Structure prediction request, 941 residues.
Amino acid sequence: MAECRGLGHSVQRKEDARFIRGQGRYIDDIKLPGMLYLDIARSPYAHAKITRIHEDTAMAVDGVAAVITGKTLEGFKLAWMPTLMSDQQMVLPVDTVKYQAQEVAAIVATSRYAAADGAAALEVDYDPLPVVVDPHEALKPGATKVRDDKESNHIFHWEHGDADGTEAALAGCDTVVEQKMHLPRIHVASIETCGCVASWNPVEGHLTLYLTTQAPHAIRTVVALVTAHLGLAEHKIRVISPDIGGGFGGKVPVYPGYVLATAASVVTGKPVKWVEDRSENLQADSFARDYHITATLGSRNGKVTALKLDTIADHGYSDAAANPSKFPAGLYHIATGSYDLENAHVSVDGVYTNKPPGGIAYRCSFRVTEAVHAIERMVDLLARENGEDPADFRLRNFIKPEQFPYQSALGWEYDSGNYGAALEKAMDMIGYQDLRAEQAERRARGQLMGIGISSFTEIVGAGPSKTFDILGIKMFDSAEIRIHPTGKAIARFGTKSQGQGHETTYAQIIAEELGIPPEDIQVEEGDTDTAPYGLGTYASRSTPTAGAAASIASRKIREKARKIAAHLLEADEADLVWEQGKFHVKGSPDRAKTIQDIAFAAYTNHPQGMEAGLEAISYYDPPNLTFPFGSYICCVDIDRGTGQVKIRRFVAVDDCGVRINPMIVDGQIHGGLTMGIAPALLEEISYDADGNITGGNFMEYLVPTAMETPHWELGETVTPSPHHPIGAKGVGESATVGAPPAVVNAVVDALWHLGVRHMEIPMTPARVWNVLNEHGAAATR
Amino acid sequence: MSSHQISVTINGEEHTREVEARLLLVHFIREELGLTGTHIGCDTTSCGACTVLLNGVPAKSCTVFAVAADGAEVTTVEGLGNGGLHPVQQGFTEKHGLQCGFCTPGMMLTSKALLDENPDPSEAEIRWGISGNLCRCTGYVNIVKAVQRASELMKENSDG
Prediction:
């Protein structure tokens, strides 16, 4: 039998064969006969009344076949669509635009260029209205009201924890630090933008939607619910998510362009493609973060005791955050982090402003990055206020290994952890004490060097059905495995890879459980007609949910295989021993049947009374979330002349439980770290006072290149999840969550002796230079 | 809209077409010829997903008019392996230099041009060489390793 190469093997990725040959099939590669192209005319204003849309100006352009406006959609009751957070957002405005770059009309034409010409030619008359950009201003009495259908700009108040107990605990602390911080708007900016091809078949009443979506099944249900009044039904809707060029959470929401392409296909009777360009992607698609946090952390006798976070969340003009339905601020209440904290209270107030809607992940499980940023910044500040090294302070205040499973003050049950081991390993790898000595020496010479730590705890794998649902649909995920007569297999999942390598790692899980080599297992996702229902890939949930389902379905198959093996070996089931890939009779290792033998028998020689075939399906409802963790140490040098922050070294020790494919895990961490330093140093979607976007293309929105990205140094510890079938926890987002405060702490550390206590992000050269200048430390030549 | 007849040799095969003056090379390659391995990731010549080799030199094909490529030799990812796998393709898969695969064709063509000019680049030279190509998935470390591996393979091939 071939070596099965299950868990722990760096198996080469199966999906690479097509990608390295340019044979991936992404959304813009799909071309259907007779297909039309859709482009979108967008608002130049952040807030304005539309007085007239001159459709004839676009229709006059050669090749333009149709112009769709909000009034067209209103006729189908499709001008507005529901969001996942019980709000609504416009597909197209009927009378008022609420942010710059908002969709105003769709132009459908015979070619991509003609559609763009039509969008450019469309004349629209606007009456500009007052704009509110700052969420604090939006909350003041008399502020410009963003939404005509709401009473104020205040969307929701959410709080969690013991407010009075936390205040009392803070009053009893001997050391308290308070800090305001803003985590600005950022954008996932996957290199592939979003798009779709909608193909309506009026004869069959059937809609096929090729869609850049991380959650094809949920999208199908949403489309069915939203269009039921038009006669569409879920069995006549097929969503196909082809190869996805990066998702990171940005391909979870339903965007107006998808609905417009669908409407255009229905109107024209032809397939319609919409693929946004980069500027549209950055200016109109869901953003992440935009949390204004006021954090308070206190200690008594050097022991961290109480945490309070008060938060203003800027949601733009609609609350379209892609959170589980019961969690308007996501899993922000993981904010007590890696520390044994007895008292905590967090609150979030959601606010409307004249900006695009969203509030989604940026490679982060539902607001965990915001929580980690707050606690890791505050612990650093508190350590220094206590006169202690931030590493020592953390080591003393961590939740101890023997405290797991650990009940946090904010109600989570952490599954497993060994935080001290991860931090000590990171300190060893980077040579922490030597670096501190070097820093003192450099500081004496006037050089700015800093060392920053982040010891994060994540919360991923949403989630248990008792609390986690999206629009009522429980957040399980699924695996369906069929073993063919020749011992090869096909496995289908409710998730959808966007580069994570599911075709390889899921096959490895099945290989581990059944002894069938990964190359003998075809893994498929993303076609709602064939794959079992699942909630999709985001929030690091694929391994915790669908990965677990792969194990459980495999084990169901193994139980049937045991019965067939008993029949073939003429032995009692109880006397059979499973070793990887075969059953043998206890004490007689030669009397054995391989899984391949058994698969053949399942179709050719199965026991009387047993159904033929060898397949199983699992819809896995996780008993708890998983809690990956790690410790990162960042060492920076700051140029006093330019304010440039250079990451000299970055050590990342991650513990994601059992690793399925170490090569892929390292790759996920490399990418996550890069998306972690990005908001710390480079990225921001910013607006001026009139609501004009000032960071809406790749010239201004600075995604890290190979030049800004350091050589990542990785380490690992392995603390299995006790409740996951293979002990895995999920790793796709850990590094993005954990890295930013390590960089900020390093920069603040470099500037601490100058009196600097905090840095807002992104820490661009200009921002850092201004801080240096304020503190008399900027080099003048 | 004025149109022009152009002849472009792509991956060794000459294609003659009547095109609009404003047609971008990337759309000529993708839409006219159906070679969809060349991708589009931005609208400001920033990301490099559309990189092809234009007479052997990396060019962002979203910022070249098709008419400007009249008479040129163009290599796209489809022509990289020439039947088998080019060492750069081999290096990218061996070293996990790709995840979603979207930036990969452009990244590989830039890497090939780099190695053609500098067969034994340092890490710093590789990072500089690929800095016009954005990758959102890999964090670049494994892309650097992939280019180093490709360099080794190319040397082995030329020694052998």
